[in-house]
Design brief:
It is built from 10 helices and 8 strands. It is of the alpha+beta class. The protein has 2 domains: 319 residues, Outer membrane efflux proteins (OEP) (Up-down Bundle); 78 residues. Strand 3 and strand 4 form a beta hairpin. The two termini are 53 Å apart. About 3% of the residues have low confidence.
Length: 445
């Protein structure tokens, strides 16, 4: 039992660091969905949309409060000296005395030409529009994030392919170096293969810089400091879309669900209520007011404080009617200005609809082109891989020269790069097209 416990302790000492390292590696990995969550928390452009929605909500609640009555309580304390009027008897006195007043008041708008109701409806529509715009901003930033995420994966794959190219060229340099030392091949062949190695190393450096630039752009979108230890999880295979839909069909469905259009439409509708609210100035208004008060004066020694308040209590109720006859002709220009703003909002809605239609048309075209390129790149890679294998075998057998090998190797490297780019472009374009087809990112990421 003693030896068994020692053995278990030894095994645990070996496994715990490995498990901790695996957990740390897992913590340093980010998936696309996790990046979207970070984007929603850190991205300043999206945060600006959130603040705009909060401001619209606060404005809506402020306008709603105008339909509530105003109720107030007040009190005042005064000290009088010299010749003054006794507040209790209204007689002239010449002495030092103090008085106290307490009161309550109520004011309420009974009718204002439906101005407040129309303003509430207007600001409610603006609030809903701001919420839709907030979602639209997140969708737009998510598109940029998906493009940046895929770009990081693609440039990393290109960099890894460049490393493999350098390693293959280095093996050929070592092989030719041995042949030169053995006197089988002249030094000219060695220089040619070393030139190929230098070209591959240059391509490797270029690929590494592209990978670093893509990572930097991704972290900037997430508003995070760059971290070289963070790895991105590979994307799942792009879902094959069932059936084919034209850009017109996708656009018809998108008009019903996309927040950009809903937000622009709600904003346009809000101006019709603004016009009604402005026209309410031409209607009569009816107000209700009420007040109640009592006071105490130190000159009256016959009654204590509360007895005086009870003896001096008074109140009133009044209803006021205001009929506008002429308001310096300011209502018409205000209505005209509101109608111009409504036409501007309509034009903005049309512009948003046009931009969405063009984006969908471009997404359909890009998705079809990416599918064709992906298929062609796979065929190209298969053919050039077989061709390079034959040239490499002939080179090793001495029946092919360095020039043929370098040309075949360059063609294969180009085919590998095309295959990598087309594969990731295909994944990105399919996800973007699926986003437009369903009107959101649920299930796409």
């Amino acid at each position: 039992m003693k030896y068994l416990l020692l053995l278990l302790s030894f095994v645990a000492s070996l496994l715990v660091p490995r498990l901790a390292a695996a957990q740390a590696a897992q913590d340093n990995a980010l998936s696309l969905s996790e990046c979207v969550e970070i984007l929603a928390k850190n991205n300043l452009t999206y945060r600006d949309g959130q603040l705009q929605a909060e401001a619209a909500d606060a404005q809506w609640r402020q306008v709603k409060s105008q339909q509530l009555p105003q109720l107030s309580l007040g009190t005042s304390q005064s000290v009088n000296l010299g010749r003054s009027i006794d507040r209790f008897t209204n007689a002239y006195i010449d002495q030092l005395y103090n008085s106290n007043y307490v009161g309550a008041g109520l004011q309420m708008n009974l009718f204002q030409g439906f101005q407040i109701q129309n303003q509430i409806r207007q600001n409610q529509l603006l609030r809903e529009s701001a919420i839709e715009n907030r979602t639209a901003i997140l969708n737009a930033q998510t598109i940029l994030l998906v493009q940046a995420y895929v770009q990081v994966l693609a440039t990393k794959a290109l960099y890894e392919a460049a490393i493999e190219q350098v390693a293959a060229s280095q093996q050929q340099v070592d092989r030719v170096q041995k042949q030169v030392s053995a006197g089988v091949v002249g030094e000219g062949g060695l220089y040619e293969i070393k030139a190929q190695l230098a070209n591959d190393r240059f391509d490797q450096v270029t690929a590494l810089n592209n990978y670093r630039a893509a990572r930097l752009l991704l972290f900037q979108l997430l508003n995070l400091p760059p971290n070289d230890s963070v790895e991105l999880e590979p994307l799942a295979p792009a879902e094959q879309l069932n059936g084919t839909m034209s850009a017109e069909e996708i656009f018809d469905d998108a008009q019903k669900v996309f927040p950009e259009l809903r937000g622009a439409e709600l904003r346009r509708q809000s101006f019709s209520y603004l016009v009604k609210a402005i026209k309410g100035d031409n209607f009569p208004s009816l107000n209700l007011s009420s007040n109640f008060g009592a006071f105490y004066a130190s000159t009256n020694a016959n009654l204590d404080y509360f007895q005086q308040l009870n003896a001096t209590r008074n109140g009133g109720l009044s209803v006021g009617l205001n009929i506008p006859l002429m308001g310096r002709w300011v209502t018409r220009p205000r209505v005209a200005s509101a109608r111009v703003q409504e036409r501007i909002a309509q034009n903005q809605l049309d512009l948003t609809r046009q931009q969405l239609r063009q984006a969908i048309e471009q997404a359909v075209l890009d998705a079809n082109a990416a599918t064709d390129r992906f298929s062609a790149a796979q065929s190209q890679l298969e053919s050039l891989t077989m061709s390079f294998s034959m040239i490499e075998s002939r080179l090793n057998a001495g029946t092919a020269n360095i020039f043929e090998y370098s040309l075949a190797k360059a063609n294969l490297a180009r085919a590998q790069a095309n295959a990598i780019r087309s594969r990731y472009e295909y994944q990105m374009r399919q996800r973007l097209l699926q986003f437009y087809r369903q009107g959101g990112w649920n299930g796409v990421l």
